[in-house]
Amino acid sequence: MMQVFKGKATITQLQWLVWIFVYIILFLSFTSMDGLKEGIFYTNLYVVYYVMIIYGNIRFLYPRFYETRRYILYGLLALLLLLFTGVGRGYVSTIVYNTYFAKPGQAEPITLLNLLKFVLGGGLIFALSFIFRIAIAYFKLKQQTEEIMVQKSQAELNLLKSQVQPHFLFNTLNNIYYEAYREAPRTAALIERLSDIMRYFLDESPMDEVPINTEVKFLENYLELEKIRIRHEVQLTFTKQFNPDLRIPPMLLMTFVENIFKHGIDKSSLDNCVKISLVQEDNYLMFETVNRIYDRPKQNGSSGFGITNLRKRLTLLYQNNFELDTHKNEQSFTAFLKIPLA
Predict the structure, then answer these.
(1) Structural domains in the chain (count)
(2) Residue 23 — φ and ψ, nearest 5°?
(3) Cβ neighbours of 112 (radius 10 Å)
(4) Rounded distance, CA 145 to CA 246, Å?
(5) For every one of its 342 residues, what pLDDT tens digit does the chain have, with 9 covering 90 and above?
């Protein structure tokens, strides 16, 4: 059973209110004509009859047969439902009336015509069941909408709270940058790159697409920060040929670049060489990285997951319309990515 949402009536409670209202209307109608005992009997009989037809349709027949496109079977079972409930109601009401309420000589016969009237009377109730179903669907949708709005408001509040610390950190980095700029301009430049990377993570990465120049700037900042961890200079070439108006999903190229510094750099070597190219050709964007291979012990969990996760993401974005390939020879490791452009 659904729980009460924000103190408001649930769908189940609303249905109970409807049926109580129907019961009261029928009870007042029957008792005014037939007396208390007969009114109670017919009120209960009619309410059970209505419940069987309405819920038999909206809870069983409609979802299992009509919504699964078995229309003929749905129609036949609907007729059987009306026949069963109509005949049952006719027999019960006639027998009880003749036994307990009919005066001598006023007993009603059970005829095919009388039973057919009960069956046909159920047709209107069957039609009303669709209105009942629409009303239930409306209130469910309304409750779901209210829940979503509450969740949205809570998420916005959490976001505002989460932005306090990043803004404080950015302000602090700016102050450190200005202090460092007077004494060590190169250090200040690195602080600025770190600040740009953090802003990218906060502002750009949640988006569906970002300008390609923004993505490239992010990669360049990352490359410069990684290079300071290496003792000797890295021979790095980054070839860029693309339309600056292009937009691509964020963080799509990062896996290859990250793997270069995880597996393709020897901090003590004088011969670290990295080649990166990002080239637009026709309606495709191609990204390729090439780095040297060094013999080193393999660390547990150090590789494999990044490319696997990237492939899963590409499949969600482009289905099968992309190329992702990695291969190596005796001296170098190459990673290649080709994605379509909208």
Answers:
(1) 2
(2) -60, -45
(3) 9
(4) 36
(5) 344 444 456 888 889 999 999 999 999 998 988 889 888 999 999 999 999 999 999 999 999 999 898 999 999 999 999 999 999 999 998 899 888 888 887 788 888 888 888 888 899 999 999 999 998 888 888 888 887 877 777 766 665 555 445 555 555 666 666 666 666 777 777 777 877 877 777 777 678 888 999 999 989 988 887 877 776 778 889 999 999 999 998 888 988 988 888 877 776 677 788 899 999 998 999 999 998 887 655 554 444 567 888 888 898 889 889 999 998 888 889 999 999 987
Is 264 within a domain?
A: yes
Determine the structural domain holding residue 301 and report its residue range.
231-340
- The tokens of 336 are what? 């290649």
Q: Which of 93, 126, 154 is the last residue of a domain?
A: 154
pTM recorded for the entire structure: 0.47
Provide the terminal-to-terminal Cα distance of the chain, rounded to the nearest Å.
47
CATH number where 310 lies: 3.30.565.10
- Farthest CA pair distance, the chain: 117
Contact between residue 333 and residue 293 where contact means Cβ atoms under 8 Å apart: yes
Positions of E strands within the chain? 210-211, 235-241, 247-248, 273-281, 284-292, 323-328, 332-340
The burial class, CB within 10 Å (0-12 / 13-18 / 19+), for 254 is: middle
DSSP-derived secondary structure for 135-157 = HHHHHHHHHHHHHHHHHHHHHHH
Two tokens, residue 203: 């502002």
